[in-house]
Design a protein that fits this description.
Low-confidence stretches of chain A: 1-13
Mean pLDDT of chain B: 88
CATH architecture of chain B: 3-Layer(aba) Sandwich
Order of helices and strands of chain A: HHHHHHHHHHHHHHHHHHHHHHHH
Strand content of chain B: 15-25%
Shape of chain A: globular
Largest sheet of chain A: none
Distance between the termini of chain A: 46 Å
Structural class of chain B: alpha/beta
CATH class of chain B: Alpha Beta
CATH topology of chain B: Rossmann fold
Number of helices of chain B: 10
Order of helices and strands of chain B: EEEHEEHEHHHEHEHEEHHH
Radius of gyration of chain A: 28 Å
Largest sheet of chain B: 6 strands, mixed
Strand order of the largest sheet of chain B: 6-7-8-3-9-10
Number of strands of chain A: 0
Mean pLDDT of chain A: 83
Number of domains of chain A: 2
Shape of chain B: globular
Oligomer: heterodimer
Distance between the termini of chain B: 65 Å
Strand content of chain A: under 5%
Radius of gyration of chain B: 20 Å
Chain lengths: ~550, ~260
């Protein structure tokens, strides 16, 4: 037998085996670079070359545009909290990258390979982390390179430069390592049940929302001013100072304030740098300890989710679907949609995003037409887009309809109804609340806004479903579905913005055509006309989308 | 005959008070060079047994030894002497067949010169040689199964655990796998533990079989011994007699209900 020609464990030949973490890291790297196998050998050199170009040429060139402002900033009182916040955001972002990546597609099947092999859990964790390291290095290199370019004109001595580089690398590696450990534990906890995977996808959708909130608060919410103010920023600053990213920020600002003089900040630097190193080592140690809990195929649940008998809600859905088989079809599609936490999570995410934009980035609504005008451009397409999503999960569902008589028409009708039933109430609620924020608003504009926004939601759903049918994606994977959703979203947002610009530039707006019209009525009329255009475009897309769907093999 | 797999009241219970018994007090011995088949309906505890014996999960009661190693104390040694073909394992779809087998070989510390030859031989054996550099994402289900069988063999272990080894295979490849299992047992002296619910495969390949239902081993012996014990003519009848089935008159009862209602 060929297989027995040489037998490794019976002493056929002597060779020191590679460490398991190295084997796993190499495999992880191969898997990630699987799509670019032809250039895998040159990939590290290409990355190093591009990073060098960025660090030595692009970053200094970009930084030189605002270097004077930066030099003034770095000696100001706001420097410490601002750098603290920026580093914290990078820390948080890098921490959630592996978590979000894992939660999006919680897979445990490959665990069986590792658990069946003579490998320790710590090796699996470390190997996976190191295998992704080349890609992490890109992110760390870009961030560190930018900060180093900012500091270059200050004339830091070589020791200060090296310490700052180490500080950045340690801080961000800590974040990535913590994220990797948490991701591995979550994979084990969530990956064994369909429900757990659904929870994972749902969390991956909204996990970035807190960071977006902080970013928007910095851009338009006066967060930085509040932080600098001793009356309002004391507590937040105290909390921030406990975070390892803040210790790095303090070293950064201290060096920037005392360039070329390591002695001036010697003790503080030593304490903070030492703290960072201790934190990193502790994180590594604790992560390795947690590895045994991070990799397991022990079942966590033997109870499968059960469907409750239809109550009033699904009774109403059936009626809204026309009763009979149409109603049953709508109720079935609605159940499949509503029982996926990921879908509900998209709604929470889109409403949260709209709220954040309204709170931090847009001017306060001062007249009744403001909510309708502003929310129609971005918010309504967003809410509709995240609800409509993709055509169906997997082609198998589609073929259920294809094989039944007139199934495709029934499917599209039911999908339209289901999307309307979700989108319209959400949009109506959002616009209702937004209009209430207008000072001294009366009932008529409030009702008009709610009705017209609902109509726009109806039209947007038609357009988005048409797009989804025309460029169908049937993937189960969140990543592919997310990409498809984003493309459709971009299409409808650009359509809406295009209509707005077109109306104002070419004098199509009712306000310009009929100068005597009051602004509110003019906006309502503009809105109605735009909604009609979107509806017609949507119906055309829906027609061609259905044709395409009927021909898919 | 030397016993290479021995379980003693091996149990795996789940739930707060252990009310879900995935495996309940399994006492079993498998001999060196033997091909043993574990038969059972879906959810009977076959995969749990394999995972326990391969130290992928830990028992809640009892213990077992594999090649003399205790599954509770010597898990690394157990894994070193066993090869496992899981029922639904995850392949690295972005690796080629060669890369995947190279990775698995490295996990089991196969020296690189031996590994290269062995991968070449296995790929030829399974007629995958001409597609060795294709990414696994482009393979059919049957071809993936071949790669997984090769992966279970790549470190040439003395004991093989095979969970549904011929599922998803075309008849020709299924025949190759069956012949390979026979050859591994007869000529190479491997001990092979097969879990399946495909009765002809088990009947053809296994020296002895065990029938498991709801976590309990309810029969063990050669096919003839089980037929004698159950007073049946073939393994299918014996299996139904032991695990239960549906009465013939129930098969079309759903139509009669409808007729009565209309």
């Amino acid at each position: 037998m060929v297989l027995r020609r040489k037998n490794c464990w019976r002493g056929g030949s002597i060779e020191l085996p590679a460490p398991k973490w190295f084997v796993i890291a190499r495999n992880e790297y191969r898997v990630i670079t699987g799509s670019i196998r032809q250039m895998r050998r040159y990939f590290p050199y290409i990355v190093i070359g591009l990073l060098a170009v960025y660090v030595f040429f692009i970053a200094p060139a970009v930084v030189s545009i605002f270097i004077d402002d930066f030099l003034a900033f770095v000696i100001s009182v706001v420097a410490v909290p601002v750098v603290q916040i920026i580093l914290f955001m990078f820390f948080f972002y890098l921490m959630i990258v592996p978590i979000s990546d894992t939660l999006r597609e919680v897979k445990t099947e490959q665990l069986e390979i590792f658990l069946a092999a003579p490998v320790k859990a710590g090796d699996v964790l470390l190997g996976g982390f190191l295998g992704r390291m080349p890609f992490y290095v890109i992110a760390i290199g870009v961030i560190t390179g930018t900060f180093m370019a900012l500091l270059a004109p200050l004339g830091l001595d070589p020791v200060q430069n090296i310490i700052i580089m180490i500080v950045f690398v340690i801080t961000f590696l800590s974040a990535l390592w913590i994220g990797t450990v948490v991701a591995a534990i979550l994979r084990t906890r969530l990956g064994k049940t369909v429900r757990g995977k659904d929870v994972g996808r749902a969390v991956s959708v909204i996990i970035a929302l807190p960071m977006i909130a902080v970013m928007y608060a910095m851009i338009g919410g006066g967060l930085l001013q509040a932080l600098v103010d001793p009356a309002t920023g004391g507590t937040v600053r105290a909390v921030l100072s406990l975070l390892p990213s803040s210790w790095g920020a303090e070293i950064f600002v201290a060096f920037a304030s005392h360039p070329g003089s390591i002695v001036a900040t010697g003790l503080e630097t030593m304490l903070r740098f030492g703290g960072l190193v201790v934190f990193f080592v502790a994180a590594l140690w604790l992560g390795a300890k947690a590895a045994n809990h991070a990799y397991s195929l022990e079942s966590t649940s033997f109870t499968s989710p059960k469907a409750k008998p239809d109550g009033f809600f699904y009774g109403a859905v059936r009626s809204l679907g026309g009763g009979g088989s149409s109603g049953t079809l709508l109720a079935s599609i609605f159940k499949d949609y509503g029982r996926r936490l990921e879908n509900l999570s998209w709604i929470v995410y889109s409403v949260g995003l709209v709220a954040l934009i309204a709170i931090f980035l847009s001017d306060p609504f001062s007249s009744p037409e403001d909510p309708l005008r502003i929310l129609s451009v971005m918010a309504i397409p967003l809410l509709a887009g995240f609800t409509v999503g993709t055509v169906s999960r997997g082609k198998a569902t589609l073929f259920l309809y294809r094989k039944s008589p007139n199934g495709l028409g029934k499917f599209v009708k039911a999908r339209l109804q289901q999307s309307w039933l979700v989108t319209v109430p959400v949009v109506a609620d959002v616009i209702a609340v937004a209009t209430l924020l207008v000072p001294q608003v009366t009932l008529f504009p409030w009702l008009a806004n709610v009705m017209l926004a609902s109509l726009r939601a109806v039209a947007s759903v038609v357009l988005l479903l048409g797009l989804a049918l025309l460029i169908p994606v049937f993937a189960e994977e969140s990543r592919e579905r997310g990409l498809s959703m984003m493309i459709n979203l971009m299409a409808i947002i650009f359509t809406t913005i295009g209509l707005e610009i077109g109306f104002s530039r070419f004098g199509l707006g009712f306000g310009k055509m009929f100068p005597n019209l009051d602004p509110f009525t003019a906006v309502l009329c503009d809105h109605l006309l735009q909604t009609a255009i979107i509806s017609v475009a949507g119906m055309v897309l829906l027609y061609f989308g259905m044709r395409k769907l009927s021909r898919i093999e | 005959m030397k016993v290479v797999i021995s379980t003693e009241k091996l149990s795996k219970h789940y739930g707060k008070s252990g009310q879900i018994k995935a495996l309940d007090e399994l006492d079993l011995e498998v001999y060196e060079g033997e091909t043993f088949g574990l038969l059972g309906p879906n959810g009977a505890g076959k995969t749990t047994t394999l995972r326990l014996l391969n130290c992928i999960i830990r028992p809640t009661g009892g213990t077992a030894t594999v090649n003399g190693y205790d599954i509770l104390k010597d898990d690394i040694k157990v894994k070193r002497v066993t090869g496992m073909l899981a029922e639904s394992p995850g392949l690295y779809e972005k690796l080629s067949a060669y890369e995947f087998l190279e990775f698995i070989g490295a996990l089991y510390d196969v020296p690189s010169d031996v590994l290269k030859e062995r991968i070449d031989d296995l790929l030829k054996l399974f007629s995958l040689d001409d597609r060795r550099d294709d990414l696994l994402e482009g393979y059919s289900r049957g071809m993936k199964q071949k790669v997984l069988i090769a992966a279970a063999l790549v470190h040439d272990p003395p004991i093989l655990f095979l969970d549904e080894p011929t599922s998803a295979l075309d008849p020709r490849t299924a025949l190759i796998v069956k012949d390979l299992i026979k050859k591994l047992a007869d000529s190479a002296g491997k001990t092979i533990f097969i879990c399946s619910h495909i009765l002809p495969i088990v009947e053809e390949l296994c020296d002895r079989i065990g029938i498991i239902n709801q976590g309990r081993l309810i029969a063990v012996g050669t096919v003839n011994e089980i037929l004698t014990k159950t007073k049946t003519k073939n393994l299918e009848q014996a299996f139904i007699a032991l695990t239960g089935g549906v009465e013939e008159k129930e098969l079309l009862a759903w139509r009669e209900h409808r007729a009565a209602g209309t």
